[in-house]
Amino acid sequence: MKHGQRTFITAATAAALVLLVGCGSGDGATEGGSGTSSGTKLAVVATTPEVADFARTIGGSDVTVTQIIKPNVDPHDYEPTPADIQAIGKAAIVVKNGVGLEEWLDQTIESAGFKGTVVDSSQGVTLREGGHEEGEDGHEEGEGAHEAEEHDPHIWHNPQNAKTMVTNIEKGLAAADPAHATAFAGNLKSYSAELDKLDADNEAAFARIPADQRKLVTNHDAFGYYVDRYKLQFVGSVIPSLDTSAELSAKQLNDLVAKIKATGAKAIFAETSLPPKSAEAIANQAGVKVIGGEDALYGDSIGAEGTPQGTYLGAERHNTQVIVTALGG
């Protein structure tokens, strides 16, 4: 989906949604989506795999979480389905990533007749400007000319931001279901400690790599918060945009190849939710390898349920292990 455009539900789909939502029983939520009925769990809809994992972790056994976007699906191009609207119509809470990642959500909520609470997990996160430009110190700086007006929505790639996100989710769950607020608070405390450990482990891993070798080339601009947090140098991306629908011009392609050669970057890192062909073509020209397949990074997603990478923590550990190994750590 191009920036500035929104996904609107077709008339036929909207009619189907009205029927689906009208037939919904409202399981897990009281009328109006404002809480739980006796003996039922709080019904939560979460948009992305990351915030769904956060909601499941903080909510524990006291919530049921319906995840809208499945693993390894590009969220930038997502279009909601009738089943999504049905789930939202029954929910007490909708949890979103925010920062404009879910351009489709407002229209979807309206179509569902949702009357509950929307929890924006990004509230309180210090946002990066969109795009990258290389600063005098060799590190990448925000505010690329082509999308300087936008903020980078990939906030979860800094574990400290993830702590803010889960705190927002815990507050939303506790407000909707005060009877289980103590349990939610306990889950938040233990998970925040795990996020701190992830952050410390990442810092220790990159500390073993000389600063002049910490050079990252990715499929698209998904890792800005990660780059900033761990003091990497962002060389460039195959898709020079926060959005995956942008395309690399011939000049940008040649410039990226030249920059890879000039900086001595060792690899291009593919992403699980994007095809690797463009990355492979650029890598061939630049004389570097593509890190893909099972080692592809989780840029916009996490792994499939039941896999080691099927949680936020597992996906982020995977990313750091792959990057550190490829860069020679």
Q: Overview of this structure, please?
A:
This protein has 329 residues and is of the alpha/beta class. It folds into two domains: 11-184, Rossmann fold, CATH 3.40.50; 196-326, Nitrogenase molybdenum iron protein domain (Rossmann fold), CATH 3.40.50.1980. The protein is 40% helix and 12% strand. It is built from ten helices and ten strands. Strands 2-1-3-4 form a four-stranded parallel beta sheet, sandwiched between helices. It has a two-stranded antiparallel ribbon with strand order 5-6. Strands 7-8 form a two-stranded parallel sheet. Helix 7 links the parallel strand 7 and strand 8. Helix 2 (49-59) crosses helix 5. It is globular and about 60 Å long. The two termini are 37 Å apart.
Helix/strand-derived category reads alpha/beta
What is the straight-line distance between the termini?
37 Å
Shape: globular
CATH topology of the largest domain: Rossmann fold
| Helix content, binned percent | 25-40%
Radius of gyration in whole Å, from Cα?
20 Å
What is the CATH first-level class name of the largest domain? Answer: Alpha Beta
Number of domains: 2
* Alpha plus pi helix count: 10
Contiguous uncertain segments of 5+ residues: 1-34, 133-148
Largest sheet: 4 strands, parallel
Instruction: Give the CATH superfamily of the largest domain.
Output: Nitrogenase molybdenum iron protein domain
Q: Strand-residue fraction?
A: 5-15%
Strand order, main sheet: write it out: 2-1-3-4
Task: Count the E strands.
Answer: 10
Mean pLDDT across all amino acids: 85
Return the CATH architecture of the largest domain.
3-Layer(aba) Sandwich
The SSE string, one letter per element, is HEHEHEHEEEHHEHEHEHEH
